[in-house]
Amino acid sequence: MTHLRWVTSGESHGPRLTAIIEGVPSGLSLTAEDINVDLARRQQGYGRGGRMRIETDRAEFFGGVRDGATLGSPITLSIVNLDHASWLDRMSPARFEAPVEAVTRPRPGHADLAGGIKYDRRDLRDVLERASARETASRTAVGAVCRKLLSAIGIDVYAHVIAIGPEAAAPTGDGLVEVRERARRSELACCDAEAEVRMRQAILDAAHSGDTLGGVFEVIATGVPVGLGSHIQWDRRLDGRLAQALMSIQAIKGVEIGIGFEAARLRGSFVHDPIGYDASSGAFARQSNRAGGIEGGISNGMPVVCRAAMKPIATLKRALPSVDIRTKEKFDAAFERSDVCAVAAASVVAEAMVCAVLADAVLEKFGGDSMRELTRNVDGYRSQVREY
């Protein structure tokens, strides 16, 4: 059963993006600035396109928040699309005053053709506007609300980029706090300064050749208590919920939990994390975290670690061949303004999705109509765990 429900609405060049979130307990301190911080992070990163120079994403509340705190009722928030002013003739919900040229050349790698066929739309703009990664601004806002809830019970979520194209960051032996701080200071959310230089050059080279680049990022959640998720049913397993959430982000083509695919190449003795017991703290402990903080679909008290692979953005200046859906003639695919590389931005969206999944799992486990009730339940459970 879902305990946190949310939906988003809006098109890339429509008037605004909107999200409705239900299930957030009352009494959570929340302001628009809490959301705007993450919205700004999502717009940054070397390799972003011209749209980011137009938009300055700011959240507005239209329900569920009063006097800087949640009410327990559904939260409605909105982000204005500043670029909509230039698209009034093509994106108005009212009848167009003059005929508009239809988009009939689907772009390989996008939802254009499959969506056009599915929804029986002969102007592919009816599909590409919603399929656009612009929609992730709404998700980032939802995630920021969930981040505040998680923070109240000691859970922190952050991401860092570990590869862009062929350029990979060296494994870091630094503590998780240092990883977080270095990533936040980096324009590419990368902890390895030398690798970041190579990544920037790879992005520049791709841009000069009219091409794009993808990459890999890692999301880490610390402070996650043991016991979130369940082995009881397939759809309650925490790793499955996280994988689905991350795969739902535009352009993500692969997800790992812990060491992921590497585990398939190793013997079991090199994969599983031995269990110990620290008598001084009265807690079970592991010296490694190859499982990524999840065993049997349940969080085990170690940091939750997810990794996602993002394909190169499908909108290319060096257009790939396509076919006009009306004439069936061959053409080069239409070009919409786009980024060269958005891996750093996608990592911010991934943080938001992980926050949303963990917030739902927290509410599933602990319940609570108010933050006072939720935190009391969490504190009581943590005391119980220490006595195990």
What would you note in describing this structure?
- The protein is an alpha+beta fold.
- The chain has one domain: Chorismate synthase, AroC fold, CATH 3.60.150.
- Helices cover about 35% and strands about 20% of the residues.
- The chain has eleven helices and 17 strands.
- The strands form six sheets. The chain has a five-stranded antiparallel sheet with strand order 8-7-9-15-10. A four-stranded antiparallel sheet has the order 1-2-6-3. Strands 4-5 form a two-stranded antiparallel ribbon.
- Strand 7 and strand 8 form a beta hairpin.
- Helix 4 (about 110-120) packs across helix 5, helix 6 (about 135-150) crosses helix 10 and helix 9 packs antiparallel against helix 10.
- The longest helix has 24 residues, at about 345-365.
- It is globular and about 75 Å long.
- The two termini are about 25 Å apart.
Provide a short characterization of the protein structure.
The chain is an alpha+beta fold and 388 residues long. 33% of the residues lie in helices and 20% in strands.
Secondary-structure blueprint:
Blueprint: E1 5-9, E2 16-22, H1 32-42, H2 51-54, E3 59-63, E4 65-66, E5 69-70, E6 75-80, H3 88-91, H4 112-119, H5 125-131, H6 136-152, E7 156-164, E8 167-168, H7 176-185, H8 193-208, E9 215-222, H9 238-247, E10 252-257, E11 275-278, E12 283-286, E13 294-295, E14 298-299, E15 304-310, E16 321-323, E17 330-332, H10 343-366, H11 371-386
Helix pairs in contact: 1-6, 4-5, 6-10, 9-10
